[in-house]
């Protein structure tokens, strides 16, 4: 069976592999296709596409936009976006400015708790890419403040945690329209993170997003169990949404997630790529 991974991060955001390293790994893993979907940046797409040619892996350009959402976290994936869209780039610049303003606030809160982390320490591992909480978490592990990246999130950095600062300035509707106007396919990332209390609430959230222009949902995902994946596939099929899947590979920032296979049981069929292409061709 041909497999793919449509959700990955590189050093352009909070992943630890360069685009070249990621594409080499994709080839070694035997993936037929891969999408790079960095947080709020398209900087890895050109080097990624070039490295994909060398690696003999099909490349799908993507992006993951952080959105504001009352509950949980909402991220919007955009596939086949035109990187040169000036509107997309101007939205991305605004979100990047919000990130740049937020990081020092998180560091200040950590400092007050006796857990100093400096911007210099972060810059050492971010290589000029978009800085996110996983970078801060990695330094906290390095300095012995916490045992793992997960523990840094659970104790300090999670939404509502003692060192949390909000960032998103983009509404889901604006994110969806930005992707659509850049010629891309907007897909709801990791629906579990919306923290719907039951299937009915999730379906209501997806319906509202579909009314705003959403075209797909990420059904196969590292944190989705079989039942939740089945629920997402069912919603996708009933609402005519493209079903996609990805591991959310981050390298060292999420050492428990492996490319293509997530926590071990992820297998994302290549038919997801074909469905995305069909949606793009129908635009
Ligand atoms: P940010 O872009 O700074 O909001 O950080 C978002 C990143 O943090 C995403 O890659 C998430 O997957 C990651 N993240 C969120 N919660 C956790 C957690 N509990 N453990 C590890 N990574 C997390
Ligand atoms: Zn991330
Ligand atoms: Fe995400
Ligand atoms: Fe992601």
Which descriptors would you attach to this protein?
DNA polymerase, domain 1, binds adenosine monophosphate, TIM Barrel, binds fe (iii) ion, 10 helices, 7 strands, binds zinc ion
Architecture overview:
The chain has 283 residues and is of the alpha/beta class. 44% of the residues lie in helices and 13% in strands. β6, α9 and β7 form a beta-alpha-beta unit. Strands 1-2-3-4-5-6-7 form a seven-stranded mixed sheet. The protein contains ten helices and seven strands. The protein starts with a strand and ends with a helix. The chain is globular, with a radius of gyration of 18 Å. The model has no long low-confidence stretch (mean pLDDT 97). Zinc ion binds next to loops.
Structure classification: alpha/beta
Tally of extended strands? Answer: 7
Report the CATH C-level class of the largest domain.
Answer: Alpha Beta
Q: In the CATH scheme, what's the topology name of the largest domain? A: TIM Barrel
Low-pLDDT runs: none
The main sheet comes to: 7 strands, mixed
SSE pattern, N- to C-terminal: EHEHEEHHHHHEHEHEH
- Spell out which ligands are present: adenosine monophosphate, zinc ion, fe (iii) ion
The global form is globular
Mean pLDDT, all residues: 97
Termini separation comes to: 28 Å
Task: Provide the CATH architecture of the largest domain.
Answer: Alpha-Beta Barrel
User: Could you say how many structural domains there are in total?
Assistant: 2
- Kindly provide the radius of gyration, computed on alpha-carbon positions and rounded to a whole number of angstroms: 18 Å
Name of the CATH homologous superfamily of the largest domain = Metal-dependent hydrolases
